[in-house]
Amino acid sequence: MLNEQEITARLAALDGWTREGQAIVKTYRFANYHETMAFVNAGAWIAHRADHHPDLEVGYNRCVVRYSTHSAGGLTDKDFACAARLDALFAA
Amino acid sequence: MLNEQEITARLAALDGWTREGQAIVKTYRFANYHETMAFVNAGAWIAHRADHHPDLEVGYNRCVVRYSTHSAGGLTDKDFACAARLDALFAA
To answer: 20 to 30 A Cα–Cα from B6, which one of A13, A28, A71, B63?
Structure first.
């Protein structure tokens, strides 16, 4: 599990992610439902590959992604690595 | 928009759906992430066809579905019709 100093440093290296207790959260926005669902599925593929599954809130044109490492009871490098991979996917 | 009596009657005809303010909500549970994502996508297809999009909370082995007709400011027949279609999909 990362300590507060490590969390602060890793958050600063990401764009648009915020701390929410033992999780990090970002809202991605899309043009329409098709685009939203395509992102949800691409994100699910990353979750499979990383064996690390975020909680998602899916609306018509937005997806809120929330990463936490429940097994560790807090934030780990895995959460920040997956967050960076989702950002790369979004920017692709 | 449906009145309270109509909402109560339509809720009674469904299984596992509960009222939550101006929405109806149900939690579907699955064996694993693959199954969860397959349901999310089948549900998205229904949302496309009905042009009525629920809010979803997607976790590893569960999906919370929340229907409301935002344009009407409350619950309509469309919400209950889509809820029934999702239940049929889940039972398929």
So the answer is: B63
The answer to whether A43 and A86 are in contact (CB under 8 A) is yes
Q: Where are the beta strands (DSSP E) in chain A?
A: 18-20, 23-29, 55-58, 62-67
**Residue B83 near residue B76 (C-beta atoms within 8 A):** no
Q: What is the ipTM of this complex?
A: 0.93
Euclidean distance between CA atoms A25 and A80, whole angstroms: 11
User: Could you tell me if A60 lies within 8 Å of chain B, comparing CB atoms?
Assistant: yes
The reply to whether residue B55 touches residue A57, judged by beta carbons under 8 angstroms, is: yes
What confidence score (pLDDT) does residue B92 get? 85
Mutation for B interface: A27, A34, A37, most B CBs within 10 A = A37
Sheet holding A62-67, edge to edge: A18-20, A23-29, A62-67, A55-58, B55-58, B62-67, B23-29, B18-20
In angstroms, the separation between the Cα of residue B14 and the nearest Cα of chain A is: 23
What's the pTM value of the predicted model, to 2 decimals? 0.95
